Amino acid sequence: MQYILIADDNPDITDILSAYVKKEGYEPVVAKDGLEAERLYESHKPSAVLLDVMMPLKDGYEVCKSIRKKSSVPIMLITARGEDYDKIMGLDIGADDYIVKPFSPSEVMARLRAVLRRFVATEVSENPDTILRVNNMTVNLEEYSFSIGDKKIPLTKKEIETMWTLASNPNKVFTRDNLLDSLWGYDYYGDSRTVDSHIKRLRAKIDTIEHPAWGIKTIWGVGYKFEINDNDV
Fold it and tell me: For the whole model, what pTM was predicted?
């Protein structure tokens, strides 16, 4: 049996989402607060998590961070807060998508299917080609880890996927729309500011260690590319 964890303190929302989840062939598991969400995640190991942000005892952001420390399971944040900052914060801490109330249950299911497809497509435990090395940088998709030299740098799941996408295509320019589509999927209704903020936070982390042989370069008016400096390789 495959489970979908639905965490929300509003029973009307959990009831309707549960009904739609069952139509998708999954068994819903419902939590009324953040602590119960963490407990049910551990006991059921769901295929995906639908997570309200404003919950009693522990909010959705904290639950998302807690789950993301130990799993790359798809997480969708659901909230009444629709400000760009809130969306970007949710994505930066590891959520795969973000949907704002009031919402259409059909839209939630469409986006859930999309994140599940991407998760299956990037599931790499059976794939030997999961480690990318460029000069002193290593991206490991099996462990979802990132290091420069012998120093591991804690990146979110999305940040690691960003580094893999860029670094596995050196000197290829990705537009902001390319990155939105590749990393968040065609069903993500975001804009280019999400990408810019995401890259800014990623750079701040990797720039704590010198890496003169490579870097993420901004192509003004277009997007970004992973640039290799041949003189330093």
Answer: 0.57
Whether 49 and 74 have beta carbons less than 8 Å apart is answered as: yes
- φ/ψ of 141, rounded to 5, equals -80, -20
pLDDT at 152 over 80: yes
Between CA 11 and CA 16 the distance in angstroms is: 9
Q: Write the pLDDT tens digit of every residue in 107-116.
A: 888 888 877 7
Q: Which of 93, 114, 94, 89 is nearest to 189 (CA)?
A: 114
**What secondary structure does DSSP assign to the chain, as a single string?**
--EEEEE-S-HHHHHHHHHHHHHTT-EEEEESSHHHHHHHHHHH--SEEEEESS-SSS-HHHHHHHHHTT----EEEEES---HHHHHHHHHTT-SEEEESS--HHHHHHHHHHHHHHHHHH--TT-S--EEEETTEEEETTTTEEEETTEE----HHHHHHHHHHHTSTT--EEHHHHIIIII-TT----HHHHHHHHHHHHHHHTTS--TTEEEEEETTTEEEEEE-GGG-
Pairing of strands 48-52, 151-152: unpaired
- Identify whether 102 is preceded by a cis peptide bond (ω within 30 of 0): yes
Residue 84: Cβ within 10 Å count: 12
